[in-house]
Design goal:
With 319 residues, the chain is mainly beta. Helix content is 0%, strand content 28%. The chain starts with a strand and ends with a strand.
């Protein structure tokens, strides 16, 4: 038989005061009442609405104050959970869920998922909101031996540095040498892409378009040699896109120089023209000569020089 007990019983009534709670006493097989918080207030006398003879038939029920707050009664739970709404934020201990403050924390024990800020988690942990550490540069995601498999992120902002399988350096993205052929791959929605592979040296893939001068207004500077990977395989410029000017201390030609432009075949030399190799001129006159054009007339053993003002060739005979 379930009994109710309290220190200081008065007659057959149980003194229930404000800020009191009850707790089952397994040793005495009854309910003890405890006072918590500050006391005071008018004493309220509450008794069970059921008769003592029926107490033995109330197994599985719990004791609660009735709706009019005039008596205690045995209540059969309608669900297999106990709702608790007396906290600052509502707490619902459901049969399959734990819900705190609507969606502050949601535990789905059927599908084994947890939601923060959502009551519909679609994975092991689903968060509807920002994740911010309480202090800067103090906590990690993963550690040196346990890594996340993949990270899908729309934008990444590095406050200091980033390291790929290596020790990071301030303000840089660092690859450790143990990584086989690490690469950077950039692709725009239009299909333009650029890849840099790191294998002893930096190698480029496809084209790098630096046509927007505002991006590289000061050009490029090299503190080393600029050498093609294979001899006689690559060009600087092409048949339709030319560099405006080339400034170099020395120019060594391995084979042939082809000159074209507004003034066809024109070479301007300031200073002496010399060297170990011979300088040769054409052996036939050009079809559209301009002043200064020369050719060697082999049949007459003479040098022809064109005079545009006179529209004629002048010849110098050589013995």
């Amino acid at each position: 038989m379930l009994c109710l007990r309290k220190f200081g019983m008065i007659g057959q009534h149980i003194i229930i005061r404000k800020n009191m709670s009850y707790k089952y006493n397994p040793f005495l097989k009854g309910l003890d009442y405890y006072e918590f918080g500050g006391g005071g207030g008018v004493a309220t006398f509450l008794g069970l609405s059921d008769t003592p003879s029926s107490y033995t038939g109330e197994a599985g029920k719990y004791v609660a104050v009735n709706s009019t707050e005039t008596a205690l009664e045995f209540v059969a739970p309608v669900n297999s959970f106990v709702p608790y709404t007396g906290a600052i934020k509502n707490l619902d201990l459901g049969a399959h869920n734990l819900i705190v403050d609507t969606n502050t924390l949601f535990v789905d024990s059927v599908n084994h998922r947890v939601g923060i800020g959502t009551t519909a988690p679609n994975d092991k942990l689903t968060i509807n909101g920002n994740i911010v550490p309480v202090t800067n540069s103090a906590f990690n995601l993963g550690n040196s031996s346990n890594y996340w498999a993949n990270a899908y992120i729309n934008n990444v902002y590095y406050n200091s540095s980033a390291s790929i399988n290596g020790t990071s350096h301030s303000g840089s993205l660092t690859f450790l040498n143990s990584v086989d052929n690490p690469s950077f791959y950039f692709q725009s929605p239009g299909g333009y892409y650029f890849r840099i592979s790191l294998f002893n040296n930096i190698s480029g893939y496809e084209y790098v378009d630096f046509s927007r001068s505002s991006y590289f207004s000061k050009g490029f500077r090299f503190d080393s040699h600029l050498v093609p990977a294979n001899s006689l395989s690559n060009n600087i410029g092409n048949s339709s896109s030319y560099w405006l000017n080339t400034y170099t201390q020395n120019l060594y030609l391995n084979s042939t120089a082809y000159l074209s432009g507004a003034t066809a075949g024109l070479i301007k030399v300031t200073g002496a023209l010399g060297g170990m190799s011979s300088l040769r001129i054409p052996t036939s006159a050009p079809t559209s000569p301009v002043s200064g054009d020369m050719y060697w007339d082999e049949a007459n053993n003479r040098l022809g020089i064109y005079n545009a003002a006179a529209a004629t060739w002048k010849y110098v005979a050589l013995a």
